[in-house]
Amino acid sequence: MFSSSTQKGELFEIQTKLQDPKTEKKKEGVKKVIELMTLGKDVSALFTDVMNCMHTTDIEIKKLVYIYLMKYAKYKPDLAILVVNTFVQDTQDENPLIRALAIRTMGSIRVENVIDHLCQPLGLCLKDHDPYVRKTAALCVAKLYDTNPELAESRGFIQNLIDLVSDSNPMVVSNAITALMEINQSKKEPVFQIDKKTAVNLLNALRQAPEWGAAFILDSLSKYVPKNSKQATTISERILPRLNHNNSAIVLSSVRLILHLSGFIENKANAVNLITKVVPPLVTLMGNKNEIRYLALRNINLIIQKWPSIFSHEIQIFFCRYNDPIYIKLEKLEILVLLASEKNINQLLHEFQEYSMEVDEQFVRKSIRAISRCAIKLEKSAEICINVLIDLVKKKINFVQEVVVVIKDIFRKYPSRYEKIIGLLSQNLPTLDEPEAKASMIWIIGEYSEQIDNAHELLASFLASFKEENTDVQLQILSSLVKLFLRKPHESEELLQQVLKLSTESENNPDLRDRAFIYWRILSSDADLSSKIILTEKPKITEKSFHFEPSVLDELLRNISFLSSVYHKVPTSFLNSYQITQNHEEDEFEDENEDENEDENEKEEKNPKNKKNIIKSENNQEKSNNNNNNNNNNSNNNNEDMIVLNENENENQNENDDMSLFSLNDIISNTVKKTQTQNTFNSQLQDSIFETPVIINNEPRKLLLNSAQGKGMEILGLFKRKNDDIILDLEIKNQTNQKF
Amino acid sequence: MISAITFINEKGSILISRMYREDIPKNFAESFRIEVIAAKEIGCPIKQMEDTIFMFQRISNIFIVAVTKKNVNAALVFEFLKTLVSVLESYFGSVNENSIRNNFSLIYEILDETIDFGYPQNSSTDILKLYINQENFRQDKDSAETAKKIAIKATGVIGWRKDDIFYPRNELFLDVIESVNLLMSNSGNVLKSDVAGVIVMKSQLSGMPECKLGLNDKVAIEEQTTKTSKARDSAIALDDCTFHQCVKLGKFDSDRTISFIPPDGVFELMKYRTTENVMLPFKVMPVVKEQGGSTVEAKVTIRAEFSEKLFASKVVIRIPVPKNTADTKTSTTIGRAKYDPTAEAIVWRIKRFPGRTESSINAEINLIRGVDSNKTWSRPPISMDFQVPMYTSSGLRVRFLKVFEKSNYEAVKWVRYITKAGSYQIRI
Q1: Which of A110, A562, B176, B422 could be cross-linked to B181 through a Cys-Cys bond (beta carbons 3.0 to 4.6 Å apart)?
Q2: pLDDT the model gives residue A1
C-alpha cells in the first residue's frame, strides 16, 4: 500500500506540518508520525523535525514527542543527546505534570549519554514538593538501577528511596517500596529490609492508598517477618478489612499476608480463626470473571493442601457447571478430589458420574480418574466408587478405556478384593485400542492369571501383534507372560520363549531388551527364587494428590496470587531470570549438601532459612537427574557395568513409565513401595509437573540378589523415607565380562 | 512487573504495543499467534512460552495481552487489563480493532499514564480525563496552577473524584441487581444455589458528599442494638461482600457501616453473595424420557414462586435435545416454543410470566437414526433466563441512604430492585 514514492510524499507532507509554526498543525503532524510508527513504518528520517517540536508549552505535543523519542532514541543516540537539555529544563518546569513527564521519559530512554544526564534532575525530583513528581521519580530510580546499578548506588538514590518510604503521600510510599523490592530481587544482599518502623509506615499508607498502590504495599508487607505473636496479630487486624475490597488483586494479596502472619500467632485457636476468615472472600472470587476464577482455584488448591478442612463446607462451590470453560472444570475436579471424604463421597460420586456423561474427552477422562482416586483415598467407600465405575462400563459411556486404566490402580491398592469385575472388563478387551488401556488390561491379566482360565489365550492374542505394539504394551506383555509362566508353566512355556526371543532381538528398544535379559537370567537361576522375586506381594499405592514437600508448599503459599502459585512451581523452577540471580547462592551451599541432608529433613516449615532449603533441594534434584541420564546412557551403550536406578525418576515421567518401573520392582522381594500414580492427574494445562526433590544419603544399599544366584547380575537396594515418600534406591551391577 | 501491553488482532498482528521493559523477545507476538490464536479454542488465559508469560483478555475481535518475564502478581495484571478496557471504553466507546486504529496517540498516552515501568498507577477515568483529553482541548489546563491541582488530585487520597462538581438538582440512583444461580439435580434436589448481588450507583451530587448506606444486613443490625425486633426479623445474612475503593473498609470492618464519598456518575458500589435462605423465583419440574432410539419426550412444568403482584419478563427456557434431532412437536400453555438446531435445544420464550402461576410445555422430539444413534446422549441441563423486577432472591432491602455535604443540600434518592437468572440450570 505504501510504495516508496508515496511514502516519500507522505513524509514530506508531515515534515511541512511539523515545521509549521501553528501548534494545531504541529500536533496534527506529530500525531501522524505516531500513527505511522505504530503501523510499523520507519519514520526515523523525521527525527530532527520531531525533536524540534519539543520546545513547546503544549503538553499534548510534548507527550507525543516523548513517545516517539522512547522508540527512536536508541537508533539515533548522537541526536538524542541534543534533546537532553530540553529534558533537563522540563524537569524544572513550573508545571508538575511536565516535570514528572520529563523524568518519566528520561528514565525510559536507555541511551547511555542520556542516562548520564539523568542523575542530577532525578536527585531534584526525588525531593520535589509535589507528590506526583516524587512518585514518578521513585520508579525512575528502579529504571536507572535496571540499566546502571553502580550509578544508582553511587549517587545515593537508594537512600532517597528509603526516605520516601516514610513519605506523607501513600502513592509515593507505594512506588518507593515497590522500587526497593524490585532492586532487592536483583541483589544478593537486599539493599533494604522492612523493619518494624517501616511496616507501621506501610500499614498507615495502606489505609489511604489507591487500589494498585494498596496491592503493592500488601505485596511488600508479605516480606516482613513479624517479631512476635502480638505483632502478627496487630498487623493481621489491619489487613482483614482489605478482604472486602472489590479488586481481586487486593483480596488475594491480603489472603497471602494473612496466611503468612497466621504462622506467627502462638495461640492456635486464634490462628485458626484468622485462617478461616480468608474462606468467604476466596469463595466470592468464584463469582468473578473466568481469569480470576482460574487464579482463585489454583490458589485454593494450595490452601486446601495446607489446611485441608477449611473449605469442607464449601464443596458445592466447586461443582462444575455445564458451561464452565474446560480449564475451570479441570481445576474444580482437582479440588473436589482434595475435598473428598467419607461424609461427602455420595454427593461427589453423583457429580463425577454426571461429568462422565459429558462430551469433552479430557474432562470425561479426568472425571473417571477422580472416581478411582476417591476409591484409593477412601478405603471405606472404595466399594461404592467401584460400583459407580462398573456402572459406567455397563452404560458403555465414551472412553470406557479410561475405566480400565483406573481400575488397575484400584487393584493395586486393594489386591484380591474386587476380582469379580475382571470378567466384565475382559468383555471389553477387543475394543481396547489405546496403549495405556491395553497395558493396564495386560497387567491385570498377568497379575490375576491364576483366576483367569484363558489367560494364556488372551496374552497369546496380544503377542501375535507384539511388533506393532507401543513400548509400554510390549513391556507389559513381557512381564505378564513371565508372571503367567511362573504360575502356570505348562500352558505358557512356548509363549514365554517367543516373547523373550522377540524382546531380546529388538534392535531399537534397549528398555525392552534389557528387561527381557534380566528376566531371562532370573528365570534361569532358580525357579523358587524367581517366583519369590517376581511374584512378590505388591506394595500398595496411596492417594496423595500433588503432594508437595512442606517447604515447597510453604514457598508456594508465600506466592499466592503470583504466577508461581498459578503454575504450582517455585519461581526458580520456571523462570530463567530467577535462576540467574540465585546461582551464586546455589554454589555457596553446594558443599554442605551431602552433610546436611539429615538436617534438612528435620527443618521445620517455618524455618526462616526455607529459601535456602529449596535451593538446595533443587540442586539435589539436578543431581538425581544426572543419575537418570547416566542410567539411560548405560542402557544404551552397555559399556558401563553399573546402573543406578532411582525410583524417583518415575516422578519426572508419565504414568506409562510408571507401569514399566512397576514391573522392574517385581524383582525385589520383601519390599514396600510407594508409587506416585497421581502425576498424570495433574492438569495437563501445566506443561510439566513440579518435581519433588530427591535426597540421596549415604546409607549403604542392601544386597538383594548376589551375583552367583543372578548369574552375574547383582542387585542392591534400599528403601529410604523422606517425609511421607518412600524412595527406592536401586543398584544393578553386571559382574560378568559380557554385556547384558 | 509487566514488560509490555499489546493489542493483537485475530490474525495475530500487533495493532499497538507499549514496551515498558526490554527483557522480552522481539518476536513475542509471533509466539502468541502460534500458541494462542492458532490454537482456536481459547483455553487458559495464562500461557507460558519458554520463559515469557502472556496473560490476556479477549474483547470483541482483539486480544489485550500483558507480557512478562517475572513472577508477577497475576490477579493484579488481570484486574489491570479489566480496568484498562473500561478506561478505553470511557474514552472512545467500544474497544475493537477499528477504534484502536483510530486512537493510537490517545492509547499511547493512556498506557503511559496508567503504567510506569510495568507498575499500574492511577487509572481512575475521572482523574485521567482531567489531563488526557485530546478532543476537548482547553488552553487553561496547561497553566501551571491547574496542573498543580491535577497533580494533587492524581496522587490524592480521594483519587476517584474531582473537586468542582456541581449539579443543580442533586440525585442519587441505586440499582440492586441480583443474579440467582441454581444447579438442581434430575431428582429435584438443589445441589447449589446462591445469589450474587451488585449494587450499582449513579451519583449526580455536587461537592464532596459523604454517603451512608444501610442494608437489612443481620450483622449490622445486631451491631446497633437499639433497633426494634421487627428490623431484626427481616434481616438477612450475607456470606461476604466487597466494595468499591471509595468505601471506608476500616469502618465497615469495625461496625458494618457502609460509608463513602462516591465517584461521579455510574459505578459498582458493592457486590455481595449469599447462600442462606435463597428464594428461588422459579421451580422447574422436568420429565425427559428417551423412547428407544427414535424419540425423546419432554414435559417441563414451571412455577413462579414470587408474589402474584409481581411478574417476570424475558423468560427463556432452553430444553436441550440430541444432536440427531429431525423435528419436534411442541405445545405450550403460555408463550412460544421453537426448535433451534444450532443451539441443539427447544427454546421456549414467555414475555410476561405472572407470579404464583404455573405453565408447562410438552415436546415430542423425533430423532434421525444414523451412525451416531448408538452413542449415548450427554443430556445437558435445562437452562433458564428471566428478570423479575422489584424482587430480590436474597430478601435484601435498602434501609436508608443518607447524604451529608457541607452545603447541606437535599438529595433525591431512587432505589430499584431486580433479580435476574445467573446460571440457572436443571439437570435432566
Answers
A1: B422
A2: 45
